[in-house]
Design brief:
heterodimer, A: Helix Hairpins, 0% strand, elongated, B: 491 residues, mainly alpha, 21 helices
Chain lengths: 110, 491
C-alpha cells in the first residue's frame, strides 16, 4: 500500500509537471491542479501510516496523526480559491487575445 | 495585557478587511477608515517594540491557549517587530498615496479592503511562529497582491497578475512539500520546536530535502536572481501605490524567511549561506545592468529591487553579527527608498501626456514640477548610497562587514556593480527633468505628500542613523543565539 501510494503521487506529480511545460495556458492551469493535488496527497501520507485508527476513536490502538489532515484541508481550500482566480484571469486573457497559446499572449514583451 | 499588545496590530488589520468592505458605498469614509486603522496598527506596533526593548524578552501568544509545540504560536521577537514596523510604516505611506491618486483603480470598492488584506498578510507572516501559518499568510499576500494588480488601469495588469499568481502558486506547492518533508522528519511545525529538534538530530531523513524546498520557495518569493523573471513585469504593471508595496515589502517576506532559515532552523548549514552569497552577488550584477538597460522608469526600479535584494542576501549569507545588522538596516532603508521612488515614478507618469511610465512618455515631464525633481534626486542618491541619506548607512555597513569577514571577491563585485546604480538613477533624473519635450503641458496628477514623507524619513535616518542601527544591532545579537528564541517559546 505504501509503495502504491508513493507511485501514484509520483505519477500525478510527473503528469502535472508535463502539463505545466505545455504551451497551452489551460493545460498549464490543469497541471497546476494536478501538482497541488499530488502535494496534498504527499502531506496526507505524511501522517497516514503511523496509525490505523482515526484520532477521534476511543479504541486503544495507535491512532493516526490528525495534524496533516488539518493541513491538507487548509491547503485544499486555498488551492481551490487560487484555481478559481487563475481560471478567471485566463478567461479575461483568452477573450482579449482570442487564443490560449502562451506564445501568443505577449503584451508585456513590448 | 501583554498578549493584546501583540495581537492588536494584527487583529486591527484583519478586522479592517470586512469593516472597509461594509463601507464600500461611501468612498471617503472607507478610505479614511482604512488609513485610520493602518495608523492605529502602526501605533500599537511601536508600543510593542517599546515593550520588548524594555523587557528584553519577546512577547508570545499561544492561540487558543494550546501550549507551544501543539498550538499555533504568534511571536513578536526583535526580528519580527523590526519587519512589522518597516512594513506598516511603508503601508501607511501607500494608503496615503492611494488617497491622493488619480488612478481609476483606487475608486474600486474592493481596493481598500484588498490593501488592508495585504497589510494583514504581511503583519501575520512576520509575527507567526509556525511554518504552516507562514504559508497561509504568504498565500493571503499573494492573492491580495495579484488581485490588486489584475484590476490595475494598465491593460497588461491581468497578464502580469496571471504570471505572478501562477509562479507563486507553484512556489506555494513547493512550500507545502518542504513543510511535509520537515514534518515527516521531525514531527512538528512550530519554528522553535523544529529548530531544537533539527539541532539535536540534523541527519534525520528528508531534513535536507525540506531545506532545499524551502530555499527554492523563498528564492522565488524574494525574486532573487535566477527566479526573478516574473518580478519586473509584475511590479511595472501594478497600480502605483500597490507596486510600491510589492517592490519594497512583499519581496521582503522571502528575505525574512532567509533570516529565520540561516539563524534559527539551519544555523550549521554552511552550504545555504554560500548559496545565498553567490545568488546575491549574481543578483546585484544582473539587477544593476538590467536596470540600466530598461526603457521604463517603473521597470528600472523593479530591476533595481533585484540588485538591492542581492545586497541583503549577501549580508545574510556572510552571517556575522555585523553583516546581519547591515542586512537589516539595508532592508529597512530599501523599503523606504524604493516605495518613495516608485511613488515618484508613478506621480510623474500620471502627469505625462500619455499615461505611461516609459521614458518616451515621461521625458521632460518634470519641467513644471521642480519639487518632485528634488525628491527624486534625493531618493536616487539614497538608492545609490550617497551620504547624508540612509542608503549610505546600509551600504557602508555591508562593505565594512565584508572587509571584517575577509570576503574580498564578492565585495569587489558588488562594489563595482553598485556604481551602476548611480548611472541609471542620474540618467533617468536627467531625462525626466532636463530634456526638453514640446508635448509636455502642465497637468495635475497624483499627490506628492506620501513620497515626500518617505524621503524626509530617509533623510532623517541618514543624518540621525543611530536609533535604526542600534535596533538592528540588538536584533542581530538576538539572532546570533537561536537558543534564546527556543527558550522564550518552549519555556
Amino acid at each position: 500500500m505504501n509503495l502504491l501510494t508513493s507511485l501514484a503521487i509520483g505519477i500525478l506529480f510527473a503528469a502535472g509537471i508535463y502539463q505545466i511545460l505545455r504551451r497551452n495556458l489551460i493545460r498549464a492551469a490543469i497541471g497546476l491542479v494536478l501538482i497541488s493535488n499530488a502535494v496534498n496527497l504527499f502531506l496526507f501520507s505524511a501522517g497516514a501510516y503511523t496509525g490505523i485508527e482515526a484520532a477521534y476513536s476511543t479504541a486503544t490502538r495507535q491512532v493516526s496523526d490528525p495534524l496533516p489532515q488539518a493541513l491538507v484541508l487548509t491547503a485544499i481550500v486555498i488551492s481551490m480559491g487560487g484555481f478559481a482566480f487563475v481560471l478567471s484571469l485566463l478567461y479575461v486573457i483568452s477573450t482579449r487575445y482570442k487564443t490560449s497559446d502562451s506564445d501568443e499572449v505577449k503584451g508585456l514583451k513590448n | 495585557m501583554t498578549a493584546w499588545s501583540l495581537l492588536l496590530p494584527l487583529v486591527i488589520l484583519v478586522a479592517g478587511v470586512p469593516l472597509t468592505l461594509a463601507f464600500r458605498k461611501k468612498r471617503k469614509l472607507q478610505s479614511a477608515l482604512a488609513l485610520g486603522l493602518m495608523l492605529a496598527a502602526l501605533g500599537f506596533t511601536l508600543g510593542l517594540l517599546r515593550t520588548i526593548l524594555k523587557t528584553g524578552q519577546p512577547v508570545t501568544v499561544q492561540m487558543g491557549l494550546w501550549q507551544a509545540p501543539f498550538g499555533i504560536t504568534l511571536t513578536a521577537d526583535p526580528l519580527s517587530v523590526f519587519m512589522v514596523l518597516m512594513s506598516q510604516t511603508v503601508l501607511s505611506a501607500g494608503l496615503l498615496y492611494s488617497l491622493g491618486s488619480t488612478e481609476k483603480v483606487v475608486h474600486y470598492p474592493t481596493y481598500f479592503p484588498l490593501f488592508l488584506a495585504l497589510a494583514a498578510g504581511l503583519t501575520g507572516a512576520f509575527l507567526t511562529g509556525d511554518l504552516f501559518n507562514l504559508f497561509v499568510f504568504a498565500e493571503i499576500i499573494v492573492i491580495s497582491g495579484a488581485v490588486l494588480t489584475a484590476i490595475a488601469d494598465d491593460t497588461y495588469g491581468v497578464e502580469a497578475a496571471f504570471k505572478y499568481f501562477y509562479i507563486s502558486t507553484l512556489a506555494a506547492t513547493f512550500f507545502l512539500l518542504g513543510i511535509g518533508s520537515l514534518y515527516v522528519a521531525h514531527g512538528t511545525l512550530n519554528l522553535a520546536d523544529l529548530a531544537s529538534r533539527i539541532a539535536s538530530d540534523p541527519s534525520a531523513p528528508l531534513t535536507t530535502a525540506g531545506m532545499a524546498f524551502l530555499t527554492a520557495t523563498f528564492l522565488i518569493k524574494s525574486a532573487a536572481f535566477p527566479f526573478h523573471f516574473w518580478q519586473p513585469d509584475f511590479h511595472a504593471a501594478a497600480p502605483t501605490p500597490v507596486s510600491a508595496m510589492l517592490s519594497s515589502l512583499v519581496v521582503k517576506v522571502g528575505v525574512y524567511a532567509f533570516f529565520r532559515l540561516t539563524t534559527l532552523l539551519f544555523p550549521e548549514t554552511q552550504l545555504l549561506k554560500t548559496l545565498l552569497v553567490i545568488i546575491g552577488v549574481a543578483g546585484v550584477l544582473y539587477g544593476g545592468f538590467g536596470a540600466a538597460g530598461t526603457h521604463n522608469v517603473k521597470r528600472m526600479l523593479a530591476y533595481s529591487t533585484l540588485a538591492q535584494i542581492g545586497f541583503i542576501l549577501v549580508g545574510i549569507g556572510w552571517g556575522t553579527p555585523l553583516s546581519l545588522a547591515a542586512a537589516l538596516v539595508f532592508t529597512f532603508n530599501h523599503a523606504l527608498i524604493k516605495a518613495a521612488m516608485l511613488m515618484l515614478a508613478g506621480a510623474v507618469a500620471s502627469r505625462a501626456a500619455v499615461k505611461s511610465a516609459s521614458f518616451e512618455a515621461v521625458v521632460g515631464v518634470g519641467k513644471y514640477h521642480p519639487w518632485a525633481g528634488v525628491l527624486f534626486l534625493l531618493g536616487g542618491m539614497a538608492l545609490a548610497g550617497i551620504p547624508p541619506l540612509n542608503g549610505f548607512t546600509g551600504k557602508l555597513m555591508i562593505f565594512w562587514s565584508g572587509v571584517e569577514a575577509g570576503q574580498y571577491i564578492p565585495l569587489l563585485i558588488i562594489g563595482v556593480a553598485s556604481i551602476v546604480t548611480l548611472t541609471y538613477v542620474i540618467r533617468s533624473f536627467v531625462r525626466i527633468w532636463f530634456e526638453p519635450n514640446p508635448r509636455v503641458k502642465e497637468k495635475a496628477g497624483d499627490r506628492l505628500l506620501a513620497p515626500a514623507l518617505l524621503v524626509l524619513l530617509s533623510l532623517l535616518l541618514g543624518i540621525w542613523a543611530e536609533p535604526l542601527v542600534s535596533l538592528a544591532q540588538v536584533t542581530a545579537a538576538w539572532l546570533g543565539d537561536p537558543a534564546l528564541y527556543i527558550a522564550a517559546i518552549l519555556r
